[in-house]
Amino acid sequence: MRANSDLHVCVLGYGCRSKPAPAPAPGKTMKKQKRARHPRFAFMTKTEIDHLEDGYRWRKYGQKAVKNSPFPRSYYRCTNNKCTVKKRVERSSDDPSVVITTYEGQHCHHTVTFPRGAGAATLASQMAFSAHHHHHLVYNDLPALHSPTTQNPLFSVPAMSSSLLQPLHCNRQELQVASYTTQASSISSPGSVPAVDKGLLDDMVPPAMRHG
DNA sequence: CGGATTTGACCGGCGC
DNA sequence: GCGCCGGTCAAATCCG
């Protein structure tokens, strides 16, 4: 059962930790890089589903109770062994119906299965990744995730266009309908955030998807 | 039986 | 220096 009745996505932003990556201290198993250098971005999804399907396969590798939230935070890693993308999933303490998903890194492969019910997650993630590619959106770091009222969302997706729920049938025009340019410009102060243009759209839509 | 999930322990960063 | 906290590991467990 997919509770996709009220899917609402807000891309919060992305950024790289500005902290210098320290030399890997002599730990027991080289504890990876403590400070990730990968681009990160987070978006909020108003959904009852904890783990949104975004077209990629994720393996859960941890779960922790976090200080600011009564809900645990889950840690996922892309199951593709060549892909180091990670994501964190947690519920907003302010609004339990809102799931905050934080992606870290970029997929080096396409989706294994195109999402059906939760296209917003994929769309938002691809938008943000694409935005990173195009240097359209630059955040120093993530804004306060736990303060949805003061955040500065880049995109807002109040309602999932039915076209987005048609996997493999999304063509350029359909996606353009859902490119949220007007939403983004109305939410953000003029000029601060460039609208999602066709170039961006072009980048976020895999070639295989375009001929619909 | 293989892959995914759970869960407690461990480690490092950071603030005090 | 110490304690808190977030992030990751890895063994155990679950599930198809």
Which strand order do you get reading across the main beta sheet?
3-4-5-6-2-1-7
CA radius of gyration:
17 Å
Q: Can you tell me the residue ranges where pLDDT is under 50 for at least 5 consecutive residues?
A: 1-5, 14-36, 130-212
User: Biggest β-sheet, characterized?
Assistant: 7 strands, antiparallel
The averaged pLDDT comes out at 54
Main location: nucleus
Region (Disordered): 181-212
GO molecular function: DNA-binding transcription factor activity; sequence-specific DNA binding
Keywords: DNA-binding, Nucleus, Transcription, Transcription regulation
Task: Summarize the structure in words.
The structure is a single chain. Mean pLDDT is 54; it is low at 1-5, 14-36 and 130-212. The radius of gyration is 17 Å and the shape is globular. The protein has a seven-stranded antiparallel beta sheet with strand order 3-4-5-6-2-1-7. It has 212 residues and is an alpha+beta fold. The protein has five helices and seven strands. The structure holds a DNA duplex (16 and 16 nucleotides).
Strand and helix map with partners:
Blueprint lengths: L8 E7 L24 E7 L11 E8 L6 E7 L7 E6 L6 E7 L14 H16 L20 E3 L14 H6 L3 H7 L10 H7 L2 H4 L2
Antiparallel strand pairs: 1-2, 1-7, 2-6, 3-4, 4-5, 5-6
The chain binds a DNA duplex (16 and 16 nucleotides) through strand 3.
How would you describe this structure in keywords?
212 residues; alpha+beta; 7-stranded antiparallel β-sheet; disordered N terminus; DNA-binding
